[in-house]
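User: Please fill in residues for this 77-position structure.
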């Protein structure tokens, strides 16, 4: 049984694609994928900014430097 299953698996892997993808189809898919990723990232950044403004999350160092630069003012010392 094991040898028969291996043989079937090899045959399935060796079969050529019935519909090869064209360069245009790939580029369309890639643009859509990149746009979706960009939209998700922008939405996450917008929600993070809203949460920071509301004070519901802690800021990291970069965010604190951008929003409250007076915290890093060493002229007093």
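Assistant: Residues filled in for all 77 positions:
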């Amino acid at each position: 049984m094991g040898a028969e299953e291996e043989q079937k698996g090899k045959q399935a892997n060796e079969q050529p694609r019935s519909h090869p993808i064209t360069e245009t189809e790939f580029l369309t898919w890639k643009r859509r994928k990149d746009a979706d990723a960009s939209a998700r990232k922008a939405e996450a950044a917008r929600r993070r900014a809203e949460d920071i403004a509301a004070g519901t999350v802690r800021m990291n160092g970069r965010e604190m430097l951008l929003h409250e630069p007076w915290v890093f003012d060493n002229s007093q010392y």
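For context: The chain has a mean pLDDT of 84.
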